[in-house]
TrEMBL record:
<dbReference type="InterPro" id="IPR008139">
    <property type="entry name" value="SaposinB_dom"/>
</dbReference>
<comment type="similarity">
    <text>Belongs to the peptidase A1 family.</text>
</comment>
<keyword id="KW-0926">Vacuole</keyword>
<feature type="domain" description="Peptidase A1">
    <location>
        <begin position="83"/>
        <end position="499"/>
    </location>
</feature>
<keyword id="KW-0064">Aspartyl protease</keyword>
<dbReference type="InterPro" id="IPR021109">
    <property type="entry name" value="Peptidase_aspartic_dom_sf"/>
</dbReference>
<comment type="function">
    <text>Involved in the breakdown of propeptides of storage proteins in protein-storage vacuoles.</text>
</comment>
<feature type="disulfide bond">
    <location>
        <begin position="421"/>
        <end position="458"/>
    </location>
</feature>
<dbReference type="InterPro" id="IPR033121">
    <property type="entry name" value="PEPTIDASE_A1"/>
</dbReference>
<dbReference type="InterPro" id="IPR008138">
    <property type="entry name" value="SapB_2"/>
</dbReference>
<protein>
    <recommendedName>
        <fullName>Aspartic proteinase</fullName>
    </recommendedName>
</protein>
<keyword id="KW-0325">Glycoprotein</keyword>
<feature type="domain" description="Saposin B-type">
    <location>
        <begin position="313"/>
        <end position="353"/>
    </location>
</feature>
<dbReference type="InterPro" id="IPR001461">
    <property type="entry name" value="Aspartic_peptidase_A1"/>
</dbReference>
<dbReference type="GO" id="GO:0004190">
    <property type="term" value="F:aspartic-type endopeptidase activity"/>
</dbReference>
<keyword id="KW-0378">Hydrolase</keyword>
<dbReference type="Pfam" id="PF00026">
    <property type="entry name" value="Asp"/>
</dbReference>
Length: 502
Protein backbone atom coordinates (compact mmCIF):
# COMPACT_ATOMS: atom_id res chain seq x y z
CA UNK A 1 0.00 0.00 0.00
CA UNK A 2 1.16 3.52 -0.70
CA UNK A 3 2.06 6.04 1.95
CA UNK A 4 -0.74 8.26 3.24
CA UNK A 5 -0.11 11.76 4.46
CA UNK A 6 -2.18 13.31 7.23
CA UNK A 7 -3.28 16.92 6.82
CA UNK A 8 -2.82 18.44 10.24
CA UNK A 9 -5.92 20.35 11.26
CA UNK A 10 -5.63 23.96 12.38
CA UNK A 11 -7.17 22.93 15.65
CA UNK A 12 -6.52 19.73 17.53
CA UNK A 13 -9.36 18.03 19.29
CA UNK A 14 -9.08 18.23 23.04
CA UNK A 15 -10.79 15.37 24.84
CA UNK A 16 -11.65 16.47 28.36
CA UNK A 17 -11.69 13.58 30.81
CA UNK A 18 -13.09 13.98 34.33
CA UNK A 19 -11.51 11.17 36.29
CA UNK A 20 -13.52 10.17 39.33
CA UNK A 21 -11.69 7.45 41.19
CA UNK A 22 -13.68 5.22 43.50
CA UNK A 23 -13.74 1.71 44.89
CA UNK A 24 -16.95 -0.19 44.22
CA UNK A 25 -18.68 -2.62 46.56
CA UNK A 26 -17.29 -5.63 44.68
CA UNK A 27 -13.72 -4.52 45.34
CA UNK A 28 -13.03 -3.52 41.72
CA UNK A 29 -11.36 -0.23 40.91
CA UNK A 30 -13.25 1.91 38.37
CA UNK A 31 -12.64 5.27 36.71
CA UNK A 32 -15.53 7.25 35.23
CA UNK A 33 -14.60 8.90 31.94
CA UNK A 34 -16.21 11.51 29.70
CA UNK A 35 -16.03 11.59 25.92
CA UNK A 36 -17.10 13.74 23.00
CA UNK A 37 -19.17 12.93 19.94
CA UNK A 38 -17.74 12.10 16.55
CA UNK A 39 -17.06 14.60 13.82
CA UNK A 40 -15.85 14.13 10.25
CA UNK A 41 -12.41 15.73 10.55
CA UNK A 42 -11.49 13.91 13.74
CA UNK A 43 -12.78 10.66 12.24
CA UNK A 44 -10.57 11.09 9.19
CA UNK A 45 -7.47 11.75 11.28
CA UNK A 46 -8.16 8.88 13.66
CA UNK A 47 -9.14 6.50 10.84
CA UNK A 48 -5.97 7.12 8.87
CA UNK A 49 -3.91 6.77 12.03
CA UNK A 50 -5.51 3.44 12.83
CA UNK A 51 -5.18 2.13 9.28
CA UNK A 52 -1.54 3.02 9.05
CA UNK A 53 -0.41 1.97 12.48
CA UNK A 54 -2.53 -1.17 12.83
CA UNK A 55 -4.06 -2.65 9.71
CA UNK A 56 -0.89 -2.50 7.64
CA UNK A 57 1.11 -4.50 10.12
CA UNK A 58 -0.55 -7.66 8.78
CA UNK A 59 1.13 -7.20 5.43
CA UNK A 60 4.58 -6.88 6.96
CA UNK A 61 4.32 -9.29 9.87
CA UNK A 62 5.17 -12.70 9.44
CA UNK A 63 -0.14 -13.76 43.41
CA UNK A 64 -3.98 -13.55 43.80
CA UNK A 65 -5.81 -10.30 44.45
CA UNK A 66 -7.30 -10.86 47.90
CA UNK A 67 -11.07 -10.80 47.78
CA UNK A 68 -11.21 -9.93 44.10
CA UNK A 69 -9.58 -11.91 41.32
CA UNK A 70 -10.24 -9.23 38.74
CA UNK A 71 -8.33 -6.09 37.94
CA UNK A 72 -10.04 -3.45 35.84
CA UNK A 73 -8.52 -0.86 33.56
CA UNK A 74 -11.17 1.63 32.49
CA UNK A 75 -11.06 2.70 28.87
CA UNK A 76 -11.73 6.05 27.32
CA UNK A 77 -13.47 6.09 23.97
CA UNK A 78 -11.86 8.63 21.64
CA UNK A 79 -14.47 9.47 19.02
CA UNK A 80 -15.62 5.84 18.79
CA UNK A 81 -12.39 5.04 16.94
CA UNK A 82 -9.84 4.59 19.67
CA UNK A 83 -10.04 3.09 23.16
CA UNK A 84 -7.27 3.89 25.59
CA UNK A 85 -6.61 3.90 29.31
CA UNK A 86 -3.98 4.88 31.84
CA UNK A 87 -1.06 2.89 33.21
CA UNK A 88 1.92 3.84 35.39
CA UNK A 89 5.58 3.00 34.83
CA UNK A 90 8.29 3.25 37.50
CA UNK A 91 8.41 3.98 41.22
CA UNK A 92 6.83 6.40 41.88
CA UNK A 93 4.54 5.74 38.93
CA UNK A 94 4.75 7.97 35.88
CA UNK A 95 1.37 7.97 34.11
CA UNK A 96 0.80 7.27 30.43
CA UNK A 97 -2.28 6.90 28.23
CA UNK A 98 -1.92 3.80 26.09
CA UNK A 99 -3.97 1.95 23.50
CA UNK A 100 -4.66 -1.59 24.71
CA UNK A 101 -4.01 -3.42 21.47
CA UNK A 102 -4.66 -7.16 20.98
CA UNK A 103 -3.03 -6.88 17.55
CA UNK A 104 0.50 -6.24 18.83
CA UNK A 105 2.57 -7.45 21.79
CA UNK A 106 5.03 -4.74 22.85
CA UNK A 107 4.65 -1.98 25.40
CA UNK A 108 6.21 1.31 24.36
CA UNK A 109 6.10 4.91 25.55
CA UNK A 110 8.13 8.02 24.65
CA UNK A 111 11.48 8.42 26.37
CA UNK A 112 12.90 11.53 28.01
CA UNK A 113 15.85 10.84 25.71
CA UNK A 114 13.67 11.47 22.64
CA UNK A 115 15.02 14.83 21.45
CA UNK A 116 14.27 15.06 17.75
CA UNK A 117 10.65 13.92 17.33
CA UNK A 118 7.81 16.40 17.79
CA UNK A 119 5.47 13.63 18.93
CA UNK A 120 7.58 13.02 22.03
CA UNK A 121 7.30 16.66 23.14
CA UNK A 122 3.51 16.55 22.80
CA UNK A 123 3.12 13.50 25.05
CA UNK A 124 4.25 12.24 28.44
CA UNK A 125 7.83 10.97 28.45
CA UNK A 126 9.34 8.29 30.69
CA UNK A 127 12.20 9.51 32.89
CA UNK A 128 14.23 6.56 34.08
CA UNK A 129 16.30 8.72 36.46
CA UNK A 130 13.16 9.41 38.51
CA UNK A 131 12.32 5.74 39.09
CA UNK A 132 13.78 3.72 41.98
CA UNK A 133 12.90 0.41 40.24
CA UNK A 134 14.39 1.16 36.82
CA UNK A 135 16.78 -1.41 35.35
CA UNK A 136 18.91 -0.71 32.33
CA UNK A 137 18.67 -3.01 29.32
CA UNK A 138 19.83 -0.93 26.36
CA UNK A 139 18.99 -3.32 23.50
CA UNK A 140 17.91 -1.22 20.52
CA UNK A 141 14.85 -1.91 18.41
CA UNK A 142 12.68 -0.56 15.61
CA UNK A 143 9.02 -1.16 14.80
CA UNK A 144 7.81 -0.22 11.32
CA UNK A 145 4.28 0.97 10.66
CA UNK A 146 2.58 1.97 7.43
CA UNK A 147 3.53 5.63 7.56
CA UNK A 148 6.66 5.61 9.65
CA UNK A 149 8.59 4.01 12.46
CA UNK A 150 9.24 4.10 16.13
CA UNK A 151 12.76 3.40 17.28
CA UNK A 152 14.30 3.22 20.71
CA UNK A 153 15.72 0.87 23.28
CA UNK A 154 14.50 -1.62 25.85
CA UNK A 155 14.34 -0.89 29.58
CA UNK A 156 12.84 -2.70 32.56
CA UNK A 157 10.70 -1.25 35.30
CA UNK A 158 7.57 -1.87 37.34
CA UNK A 159 4.31 -1.27 35.48
CA UNK A 160 1.12 -0.32 37.29
CA UNK A 161 -2.02 -1.65 35.55
CA UNK A 162 -5.13 -0.81 37.54
CA UNK A 163 -3.90 -1.61 41.04
CA UNK A 164 -1.62 -4.44 39.89
CA UNK A 165 2.13 -3.92 39.96
CA UNK A 166 3.91 -5.96 37.29
CA UNK A 167 7.56 -6.10 38.28
CA UNK A 168 10.54 -5.78 35.95
CA UNK A 169 8.45 -5.52 32.79
CA UNK A 170 10.52 -5.18 29.63
CA UNK A 171 9.31 -2.26 27.51
CA UNK A 172 10.50 0.13 24.83
CA UNK A 173 11.54 3.73 25.42
CA UNK A 174 11.07 5.41 22.05
CA UNK A 175 13.66 7.93 20.93
CA UNK A 176 12.23 8.48 17.45
CA UNK A 177 8.63 8.58 16.24
CA UNK A 178 8.55 9.50 12.56
CA UNK A 179 4.84 9.33 11.77
CA UNK A 180 2.39 12.27 12.03
CA UNK A 181 0.03 9.66 13.45
CA UNK A 182 1.87 9.84 16.76
CA UNK A 183 1.72 13.64 16.77
CA UNK A 184 -2.07 13.90 16.61
CA UNK A 185 -2.80 10.73 18.63
CA UNK A 186 -4.54 11.12 21.98
CA UNK A 187 -2.38 8.30 23.31
CA UNK A 188 1.21 8.33 24.56
CA UNK A 189 2.03 4.76 23.61
CA UNK A 190 0.73 1.27 22.96
CA UNK A 191 0.35 -1.69 25.31
CA UNK A 192 0.28 -4.85 23.22
CA UNK A 193 -1.89 -7.78 24.29
CA UNK A 194 -1.04 -10.21 21.50
CA UNK A 195 1.03 -13.36 21.83
CA UNK A 196 4.80 -13.31 22.45
CA UNK A 197 5.32 -14.79 18.97
CA UNK A 198 4.94 -11.32 17.44
CA UNK A 199 6.75 -9.40 20.17
CA UNK A 200 9.78 -7.42 18.97
CA UNK A 201 12.89 -8.27 20.97
CA UNK A 202 11.21 -11.20 22.71
CA UNK A 203 9.68 -8.94 25.37
CA UNK A 204 6.86 -10.76 27.18
CA UNK A 205 3.42 -9.20 26.77
CA UNK A 206 2.04 -7.77 29.99
CA UNK A 207 -0.45 -10.64 30.51
CA UNK A 208 2.38 -13.19 30.36
CA UNK A 209 4.24 -11.31 33.08
CA UNK A 210 1.07 -11.19 35.17
CA UNK A 211 0.71 -14.94 34.81
CA UNK A 212 4.33 -15.70 35.66
CA UNK A 213 4.19 -13.40 38.72
CA UNK A 214 0.86 -14.98 39.81
CA UNK A 215 -0.89 -11.64 39.95
CA UNK A 216 -4.19 -12.90 38.57
CA UNK A 217 -6.34 -15.85 39.62
CA UNK A 218 -7.51 -16.65 36.07
CA UNK A 219 -5.44 -16.50 32.91
CA UNK A 220 -7.85 -14.28 31.02
CA UNK A 221 -8.54 -10.67 30.18
CA UNK A 222 -11.77 -9.31 28.75
CA UNK A 223 -12.97 -6.25 26.87
CA UNK A 224 -16.21 -4.32 27.11
CA UNK A 225 -16.36 -1.46 24.63
CA UNK A 226 -19.22 0.99 25.02
CA UNK A 227 -20.47 2.13 21.60
CA UNK A 228 -23.13 4.47 23.00
CA UNK A 229 -21.99 7.94 21.87
CA UNK A 230 -23.96 9.61 24.68
CA UNK A 231 -22.62 7.42 27.51
CA UNK A 232 -19.88 8.71 29.79
CA UNK A 233 -18.06 5.36 30.14
CA UNK A 234 -15.87 4.34 27.25
CA UNK A 235 -15.52 0.74 28.36
CA UNK A 236 -13.52 -1.57 30.62
CA UNK A 237 -10.61 -3.92 30.27
CA UNK A 238 -10.61 -6.56 33.01
CA UNK A 239 -7.57 -8.66 33.84
CA UNK A 240 -8.06 -11.99 35.59
CA UNK A 241 -11.75 -12.41 34.89
CA UNK A 242 -14.92 -10.90 33.46
CA UNK A 243 -17.49 -8.43 34.75
CA UNK A 244 -20.93 -10.09 34.47
CA UNK A 245 -22.61 -6.70 34.22
CA UNK A 246 -21.17 -6.22 30.77
CA UNK A 247 -22.58 -9.22 28.89
CA UNK A 248 -25.76 -11.25 28.46
CA UNK A 249 -26.05 -15.03 28.44
CA UNK A 250 -22.93 -17.15 28.11
CA UNK A 251 -19.82 -16.88 25.98
CA UNK A 252 -19.23 -18.95 22.86
CA UNK A 253 -15.59 -20.02 22.70
CA UNK A 254 -13.39 -20.81 19.73
CA UNK A 255 -9.79 -22.09 19.88
CA UNK A 256 -6.87 -19.94 18.81
CA UNK A 257 -5.59 -21.52 15.60
CA UNK A 258 -2.44 -19.48 15.15
CA UNK A 259 -0.59 -17.71 17.94
CA UNK A 260 0.73 -14.26 17.32
CA UNK A 261 -2.47 -12.35 16.75
CA UNK A 262 -5.62 -13.74 18.37
CA UNK A 263 -6.54 -15.77 15.30
CA UNK A 264 -9.34 -18.31 14.91
CA UNK A 265 -11.36 -20.04 12.20
CA UNK A 266 -14.53 -18.28 11.09
CA UNK A 267 -17.26 -19.30 8.71
CA UNK A 268 -19.47 -17.38 6.32
CA UNK A 269 -20.76 -13.83 6.49
CA UNK A 270 -24.51 -13.60 5.94
CA UNK A 271 -26.37 -10.64 4.49
CA UNK A 272 -30.00 -10.74 5.54
CA UNK A 273 -29.58 -14.45 6.23
CA UNK A 274 -28.07 -15.21 2.80
CA UNK A 275 -24.53 -16.50 2.24
CA UNK A 276 -21.97 -14.27 0.59
CA UNK A 277 -20.17 -17.40 -0.58
CA UNK A 278 -16.54 -16.36 -0.39
CA UNK A 279 -15.97 -17.65 3.16
CA UNK A 280 -18.57 -20.43 3.01
CA UNK A 281 -15.72 -22.92 3.23
CA UNK A 282 -14.14 -21.00 6.10
CA UNK A 283 -11.87 -18.01 6.57
CA UNK A 284 -9.37 -17.00 9.20
CA UNK A 285 -10.20 -14.12 11.51
CA UNK A 286 -8.45 -12.06 14.15
CA UNK A 287 -9.97 -10.07 17.00
CA UNK A 288 -8.16 -6.75 17.17
CA UNK A 289 -8.95 -4.02 19.68
CA UNK A 290 -6.46 -1.84 17.78
CA UNK A 291 -8.62 -1.68 14.64
CA UNK A 292 -11.69 0.52 14.54
CA UNK A 293 -13.76 -1.08 11.82
CA UNK A 294 -14.43 -4.52 10.36
CA UNK A 295 -11.90 -5.33 7.68
CA UNK A 296 -12.40 -8.20 5.28
CA UNK A 297 -12.01 -9.48 1.71
CA UNK A 298 -12.92 -6.95 -0.95
CA UNK A 299 -15.16 -9.57 -2.59
CA UNK A 300 -17.47 -9.63 0.44
CA UNK A 301 -17.19 -5.95 1.35
CA UNK A 302 -18.43 -5.06 -2.14
CA UNK A 303 -21.48 -7.28 -1.56
CA UNK A 304 -22.10 -5.62 1.81
CA UNK A 305 -21.83 -2.17 0.25
CA UNK A 306 -24.32 -3.16 -2.43
CA UNK A 307 -26.78 -4.55 0.12
CA UNK A 308 -26.70 -1.43 2.31
CA UNK A 309 -26.54 1.08 -0.55
CA UNK A 310 -23.04 2.30 0.22
CA UNK A 311 -21.32 4.44 -2.39
CA UNK A 312 -17.79 3.49 -3.32
CA UNK A 313 -15.39 3.86 -6.23
CA UNK A 314 -16.47 2.84 -9.76
CA UNK A 315 -13.90 0.37 -11.01
CA UNK A 316 -13.64 0.50 -14.80
CA UNK A 317 -11.54 -2.64 -14.89
CA UNK A 318 -14.05 -4.62 -12.82
CA UNK A 319 -16.95 -3.59 -15.06
CA UNK A 320 -14.88 -4.42 -18.11
CA UNK A 321 -14.29 -7.96 -16.83
CA UNK A 322 -18.04 -8.42 -16.30
CA UNK A 323 -18.82 -7.00 -19.72
CA UNK A 324 -16.21 -9.00 -21.63
CA UNK A 325 -16.13 -12.25 -19.67
CA UNK A 326 -19.36 -12.40 -17.64
CA UNK A 327 -21.19 -14.76 -19.99
CA UNK A 328 -18.14 -17.00 -20.26
CA UNK A 329 -17.91 -17.20 -16.46
CA UNK A 330 -21.58 -18.19 -16.30
CA UNK A 331 -21.08 -20.92 -18.92
CA UNK A 332 -18.01 -22.35 -17.19
CA UNK A 333 -19.77 -22.45 -13.82
CA UNK A 334 -22.85 -24.12 -15.35
CA UNK A 335 -20.48 -26.66 -16.87
CA UNK A 336 -19.28 -27.33 -13.30
CA UNK A 337 -15.80 -25.96 -13.82
CA UNK A 338 -14.07 -25.51 -10.47
CA UNK A 339 -14.57 -21.86 -9.44
CA UNK A 340 -10.86 -21.69 -8.61
CA UNK A 341 -9.98 -22.52 -12.21
CA UNK A 342 -12.48 -20.33 -14.07
CA UNK A 343 -10.29 -17.24 -14.27
CA UNK A 344 -7.34 -19.38 -15.34
CA UNK A 345 -9.31 -20.90 -18.24
CA UNK A 346 -10.37 -17.43 -19.32
CA UNK A 347 -6.73 -16.37 -19.24
CA UNK A 348 -6.88 -13.64 -16.61
CA UNK A 349 -5.08 -15.57 -13.87
CA UNK A 350 -2.45 -18.26 -13.46
CA UNK A 351 -3.45 -21.37 -11.50
CA UNK A 352 -0.85 -22.65 -9.02
CA UNK A 353 -2.67 -25.89 -8.19
CA UNK A 354 -4.69 -24.55 -5.29
CA UNK A 355 -5.89 -21.11 -6.32
CA UNK A 356 -5.66 -18.53 -9.08
CA UNK A 357 -2.83 -16.05 -8.81
CA UNK A 358 -1.15 -13.33 -10.78
CA UNK A 359 0.79 -11.82 -7.93
CA UNK A 360 -0.10 -12.11 -4.21
CA UNK A 361 -3.64 -10.74 -3.89
CA UNK A 362 -3.71 -7.21 -2.59
CA UNK A 363 -6.59 -4.84 -2.08
CA UNK A 364 -8.43 -3.84 -5.24
CA UNK A 365 -7.43 -0.22 -4.74
CA UNK A 366 -3.77 -1.16 -4.60
CA UNK A 367 -4.15 -3.36 -7.65
CA UNK A 368 -5.29 -0.42 -9.71
CA UNK A 369 -1.63 0.59 -9.67
CA UNK A 370 -0.54 -2.81 -10.89
CA UNK A 371 -2.18 -2.91 -14.31
CA UNK A 372 -3.38 -6.32 -15.44
CA UNK A 373 -3.21 -7.80 -11.93
CA UNK A 374 -6.54 -6.10 -11.21
CA UNK A 375 -8.26 -8.12 -13.94
CA UNK A 376 -7.36 -11.34 -12.14
CA UNK A 377 -8.71 -10.01 -8.84
CA UNK A 378 -11.85 -8.64 -10.52
CA UNK A 379 -12.43 -11.99 -12.22
CA UNK A 380 -12.06 -13.90 -8.95
CA UNK A 381 -14.61 -11.60 -7.31
CA UNK A 382 -17.02 -11.88 -10.24
CA UNK A 383 -16.88 -15.69 -10.06
CA UNK A 384 -18.02 -15.58 -6.41
CA UNK A 385 -20.80 -13.10 -7.14
CA UNK A 386 -22.05 -14.98 -10.21
CA UNK A 387 -21.89 -18.34 -8.45
CA UNK A 388 -24.11 -16.99 -5.65
CA UNK A 389 -26.67 -15.75 -8.16
CA UNK A 390 -26.67 -19.06 -10.07
CA UNK A 391 -27.54 -20.84 -6.83
CA UNK A 392 -30.66 -18.69 -6.68
CA UNK A 393 -31.56 -19.55 -10.30
CA UNK A 394 -31.34 -15.97 -11.52
CA UNK A 395 -31.39 -15.24 -15.24
CA UNK A 396 -28.23 -14.34 -17.13
CA UNK A 397 -29.37 -10.73 -17.50
CA UNK A 398 -30.05 -10.34 -13.77
CA UNK A 399 -26.75 -12.02 -12.86
CA UNK A 400 -24.65 -9.76 -15.05
CA UNK A 401 -26.54 -6.68 -13.90
CA UNK A 402 -25.92 -7.68 -10.26
CA UNK A 403 -22.18 -8.21 -10.85
CA UNK A 404 -21.98 -4.87 -12.61
CA UNK A 405 -23.63 -3.15 -9.64
CA UNK A 406 -21.14 -4.77 -7.26
CA UNK A 407 -18.29 -3.38 -9.35
CA UNK A 408 -19.73 0.07 -8.68
CA UNK A 409 -19.76 -0.68 -4.94
CA UNK A 410 -16.09 -1.48 -4.63
CA UNK A 411 -14.67 0.45 -1.65
CA UNK A 412 -13.11 3.83 -2.16
CA UNK A 413 -9.31 4.23 -1.94
CA UNK A 414 -9.36 5.50 1.65
CA UNK A 415 -11.41 2.49 2.74
CA UNK A 416 -14.65 4.20 3.70
CA UNK A 417 -18.08 4.09 2.07
CA UNK A 418 -20.97 6.39 2.91
CA UNK A 419 -24.65 5.48 3.28
CA UNK A 420 -27.91 7.39 3.53
CA UNK A 421 -28.60 7.91 7.23
CA UNK A 422 -32.34 7.92 6.54
CA UNK A 423 -32.13 4.38 5.18
CA UNK A 424 -30.51 2.71 8.20
CA UNK A 425 -33.76 1.19 9.42
CA UNK A 426 -34.23 -0.48 6.03
CA UNK A 427 -30.74 -2.03 5.87
CA UNK A 428 -30.31 -5.79 6.43
CA UNK A 429 -28.77 -7.43 9.46
CA UNK A 430 -25.30 -8.85 8.87
CA UNK A 431 -24.07 -11.96 10.66
CA UNK A 432 -20.71 -13.64 11.18
CA UNK A 433 -20.66 -17.43 11.57
CA UNK A 434 -18.43 -18.41 14.49
CA UNK A 435 -18.39 -21.91 16.04
CA UNK A 436 -21.51 -22.73 13.97
CA UNK A 437 -23.40 -19.88 15.61
CA UNK A 438 -24.43 -16.60 14.08
CA UNK A 439 -23.29 -13.32 15.60
CA UNK A 440 -25.58 -10.66 14.24
CA UNK A 441 -24.81 -6.99 13.72
CA UNK A 442 -27.75 -4.67 13.23
CA UNK A 443 -27.46 -1.61 10.97
CA UNK A 444 -27.31 0.56 14.09
CA UNK A 445 -24.25 -1.45 15.17
CA UNK A 446 -22.30 -1.56 11.89
CA UNK A 447 -23.01 2.00 10.73
CA UNK A 448 -20.80 4.73 12.24
CA UNK A 449 -22.33 8.20 12.57
CA UNK A 450 -20.19 11.31 12.22
CA UNK A 451 -20.96 14.97 12.80
CA UNK A 452 -19.92 17.57 10.23
CA UNK A 453 -21.04 21.22 10.21
CA UNK A 454 -24.12 20.36 12.23
CA UNK A 455 -25.06 17.47 9.94
CA UNK A 456 -24.78 13.72 10.44
CA UNK A 457 -22.79 11.60 8.01
CA UNK A 458 -23.10 7.82 8.10
CA UNK A 459 -20.16 5.54 7.28
CA UNK A 460 -20.18 1.80 6.64
CA UNK A 461 -18.33 -0.11 9.39
CA UNK A 462 -16.84 -2.41 6.73
CA UNK A 463 -13.64 -1.76 4.86
CA UNK A 464 -11.75 -3.86 2.34
CA UNK A 465 -8.49 -5.50 3.35
CA UNK A 466 -7.09 -8.46 1.44
CA UNK A 467 -4.58 -10.94 2.86
CA UNK A 468 -3.21 -13.48 0.38
CA UNK A 469 -3.21 -17.25 1.00
CA UNK A 470 -2.03 -19.14 2.93
CA UNK A 471 -2.51 -16.55 5.70
CA UNK A 472 -5.77 -15.33 4.19
CA UNK A 473 -8.52 -14.78 3.33
CA UNK A 474 -8.70 -13.01 6.65
CA UNK A 475 -11.23 -10.98 8.60
CA UNK A 476 -10.16 -8.40 11.19
CA UNK A 477 -12.90 -8.02 13.78
CA UNK A 478 -12.24 -4.62 15.26
CA UNK A 479 -14.07 -2.32 17.62
CA UNK A 480 -17.34 -2.36 15.66
CA UNK A 481 -17.65 -6.10 16.41
CA UNK A 482 -16.17 -5.95 19.91
CA UNK A 483 -18.63 -3.20 20.79
CA UNK A 484 -21.52 -5.53 20.02
CA UNK A 485 -19.92 -8.60 21.60
CA UNK A 486 -18.13 -8.71 24.94
CA UNK A 487 -14.86 -10.50 24.24
CA UNK A 488 -12.79 -12.79 26.49
CA UNK A 489 -9.16 -13.53 25.65
CA UNK A 490 -8.29 -16.76 27.46
CA UNK A 491 -4.53 -17.24 27.27
CA UNK A 492 -4.67 -20.14 29.74
CA UNK A 493 -6.77 -22.24 27.38
CA UNK A 494 -5.75 -20.41 24.18
CA UNK A 495 -9.30 -19.56 23.18
CA UNK A 496 -11.54 -16.54 22.55
CA UNK A 497 -15.09 -16.08 23.86
CA UNK A 498 -17.94 -13.89 22.60
CA UNK A 499 -21.21 -12.91 24.30
CA UNK A 500 -23.69 -10.12 23.64
CA UNK A 501 -22.63 -6.90 25.30
CA UNK A 502 -24.91 -5.49 27.98
Amino acid sequence: MGQKHLVLLTCFWVLSCALLLHASSDGLLRIDLNKKRLNKNAWTAAKVARQESHLRRFVGSQQSLGASSDDIVPLDNYLDTMYFGEIGIGTPAQNFSVIFDTGSSNLWVPSSKCYFSIACYLHHRYKSAKSRTYKKNGETCTITYGSGQIAGFFSEDNVLVGDLVVKNQKFIETTRETSPTFIIGKFDGILGLGYPEISVGGAPPIWQSMKEQKLIAKDVFSFWLNRDPDASAGGELVFGGVDPKHYKGSHTYVPVTRKGYWQFDMGDLLIGGHSTGYCAGGCAAIVDSGTSLLAGPTTIVAQVNHAIGAEGIISTECKEVVREYGEMIIQLLIAETSPQKVCTQIGLCVFDGTHSVSNPIESVVEKQKRGSDLFCTACEMAVVWIQNQLRENKTKELILNYANQLCERLPSPNGESTVDCNQISKMPNLAFTIANKTFTLTPEQYIVKLEQAGQTICISGFMAFDIPPPRGPLWILGDVFMGAYHTVFDFGENRIGFAKSA
